[in-house]
Design a protein that fits this description.
449 residues; globular; 3-stranded antiparallel sheet; alpha+beta
Length: 449
Amino acid sequence: MKRSRCRLPPGPAAPALVQSVRFLRAPYAMLAGQHARFGDVFTLRLAGTGALVMVSDPQGIRSIVAAPPDVLAAGRARRILDVVYGTHSLLTRDGREQAWQRRFLTPLFHRSHIARGQRLALEATREAMATWPGDRPFPLVPRLMSVTTDVLLQKFLEAGRDDSPRIKELLLAFVEAAHQPLVFHLPRFPPTSAVGPWRRYGHARDRLDRCLRELCATRRVLPCATDDDLVTALLRADRPDGAPLDDETLRDILVVVLGSGAETVTYSLAWTMEAILAHQETADRIRAELRRVTGGSPLTVDHLSRLTYLTAAVTEALRLYPINPIVPRRVLGPGFTVAGFPLPAGVHVAVNGFGAQRRAAAFPDPCRFRPERWLDKRPAPCTWVPFGGGARKCIAAHFALAEIQAMAASLLLEESLRPATPVVSPGRLVGDMIVPSEGTVVTMTPHTP
C-alpha cells in the first residue's frame, strides 16, 4: 500500500539547487517575490535543508516560537552553523546543555552591563574613525567588524594588549574563511580538506583553536580577578553534571560570543547606516538631535538614552533589513500544524522575519523607510522579530541594540560621512546572514558648498 504524503504549503517549483542559488545571490529579492506570490505561508526547497516552510503571519510565528523543544528543535535545524560555531555552541545545541549555556550566559548581557558596552563602543569607534581615509570612498563593514571585535574582546575576555590583537586577527581570519560559500555550504567536501578554501579554513581554525586553548590554559593557572572575564567564569562554572567544561566546549562558547556577537552588530549597523545615509532628511534630523542633546560637548553614554529619533531609525532599519530573516526549527514528530498544514517529521519550519516585518497589516506603507512610525508606538507581538522570539530569542538583543545605537551616533556625528551612492544595497548572503552587497561604501571627504 502506498504511503500518503503530507501536503505542504505551495511554493516555487524550481529545483532546490536553483532556489538555493537565487537565495544566495539576492536573498531579500527572492523572499519579497515569494511572499508577494504565495502570501504569509509558502515552502522553499533549499540544498542541504530540504523543504522549508516559511511563516510570516503573527499567529503562525507565535506557534513556532512557543512550541516546546520536543516538538520543534532549534539547534538541530541550524547544523549548517557547525562549521563556524562548532557542535557544542548555544546556537547549535538542544536540550539540557543548551539550556545550561543560556542560563549561564544571559546575565552577561543584562541591562546592568549595557552602559559599559556602550562606553567601550563609543571610545573604540572614535579611535577607529581617526584612522579612516578622508580622500577616497571605502567600505564600512570591515572597519565596523574590527571595532565591534575590539569591544567584545575588552568586554568579555579582559585580554591584555599583547593578546587582543592576536586573538582578533585569528578570529576575523577564521570567520572569513568559514564563510566562503563552498566551505560554509559544503563543509565536508571534498573528502580531504587539503585543497583550496577548505585548506585555508582548516588552517585558520587550527590557529584560532590553538590560541584559545592557550588562553584557557593561562586562565586555569592565573584566573582573571575581574567579573567580566568570560574564560575565568566558564572555568569556575557549576555545570548540571558537575563536570568541568572541556576545551572544545569552551572554544565553541567563546567563538559564539565573540564571532556571532561581532557579526550581528556589524551587519545590523551597516544596514542601519545604509538606510539612514540614503535618506538625507533622516540623517539631517538625527544630526540635529545629536547637536541638541550633546550641546556641543563630547558624546557620552548619558546622552544615548535621549536620542529618541536615532533609536527609531535603528528600529526601522532592522525592520526593513533583518540580517537573519530565516529563523528555522526542525519538526521532530507528527502533530505540529501551521496555517492548517500538518507538517511531517523532518521538515523544517521557519519564522520569515523579512515577510513578517513588511506586512501592511502591521506596518502601513511597509516598504518605506519611515522612523517616525516608532516614535509613539511599540511593535505588536510577533511582528518585529530581528532577534527571533520565544525561549530561543537572542540573549544579546538588548546589548546589541545598545551597541548599534552608540556606534551609529558616533558615526553620524561626523557631518562629512556620506554614502558613495544614495541607494540602499540589494544585499547578499554571507554564511546565514544578509549583508550589504558592497560593504556599505561611504566617503568622509568634506563637501564644499
